[in-house]
Structure prediction request, 171 residues.
Amino acid sequence: MHCPFCRHPDSRVVDSRTTDDGTSIRRRRQCPDCSRRFTTVETASLMVIKRSGVTEPFSRSKVISGVRKACQGRPVTEDALAKLGQRVEEALRATGSAELTTHDVGLAILGPLQELDLVAYLRFASVYKAFDTLEDFETAIAELRDGRPHPHECEPGGTPAVVPVPASAAD
Ligand SMILES: [Zn+2]
Prediction:
């Protein structure tokens, strides 16, 4: 890529390292012309198509802030939120799809959030699945009591768009 300082059309990689979570590579580069250094980050492309039709890069921090809202007043630590964010991102990347919808992202959040905190899960699910009546909550609670996983119910027939991550892969 071009040097961001002098626009020289080439650069030399002086260091490469994979980030701790393994989802990206940071490269330290040096311009052979002006000798200045800069960093690039390489990740597998993962775009999210919003309901408005606008496409934006997947943001783990947006997932975490959405879940954090649902967790207000609940005994959920920042560390647990960070882990959830990582699991969600890994599950979405594991689909191999470069483009997802906000629906897919919400779906990937439901499973891990249900394990994390049931009250937060119900809050999140009530927004995500657009509960409008008390019966919707009662049904969701009854499902939780049954211990049956229902996060994929809203997928109209067919396979879930998102493959749940096995617990072992989340560590
Ligand atoms: Zn340069």
Summary: The longest helix spans residues 78-94. The two ends are 35 Å apart (CA to CA).
